[in-house]
């Protein structure tokens, strides 16, 4: 990082944050201009905002012995869904689920057997 920082100007691209430590150990803070130059030189593109997953409603088809997995019918397709505990879910019960990027997860867990 020292080699990369040496090619940029101190004061315009990056600054040292004062502290009681020796000057060599002061933290480095990058300015907005410095961050833009650094991204350009490293070839990093701006990341788009991550979309919040939509919550869908499915129906419980069956349960496994594993208390953390349910089989849920989502848009006509049976899928495995991760939950905290499947003992209070009843077959035929509607379930609120969302996609977390890797798998389906239950959003809301029932407090009582078969109902929220």
Output mean pLDDT: 90
> How many structurally independent domains?
2
Q: Given this structure, which CATH class of the largest domain is correct?
A: Mainly Beta
- Intertermini distance: 53 Å
- The strand line-up of the biggest sheet is 3-4-5-7-6
Question: Any idea what the shape is?
Answer: elongated
Count all strands and give the number. Answer: 7
- Radius of gyration computed on alpha carbons: 25 Å
User: Percentage of helical residues?
Assistant: 10-25%
Major sheet: size, sense and barrel closure?
5 strands, mixed, barrel
Number of helices: 2
Instruction: Give the CATH architecture of the largest domain.
Output: Beta Barrel
Overall SS class: alpha+beta
Low-confidence stretches: none
Taken as a percent bin, the fraction of beta residues is 25-35%
Elements, N to C (H/E): HEEHEEEEE
Could you tell me the CATH topology label of the largest domain.
OB fold (Dihydrolipoamide Acetyltransferase, E2P)
Task: Give a written overview of the molecule.
It is a single chain. The chain has two helices and seven strands, in the order H-E-E-H-E-E-E-E-E. The relative contact order is 0.13. The protein has helices at residues 2-6, 32-42; strands at residues 14-17, 27-30, 55-63, 69-74, 77-82, 94-99, 104-106. A hairpin with a 4-residue loop joins strand 6 (94-99) and strand 7. By secondary structure, the chain is of the alpha+beta class. The protein starts with a helix and ends in a 10-residue tail after the last strand. The chain has two domains: 2-42, no CATH class; 55-106, OB fold (Dihydrolipoamide Acetyltransferase, E2P), CATH 2.40.50. The longest helix is centred in the N-terminal third of the chain and has 11 residues, at 32-42. It is 14% helix and 33% strand.
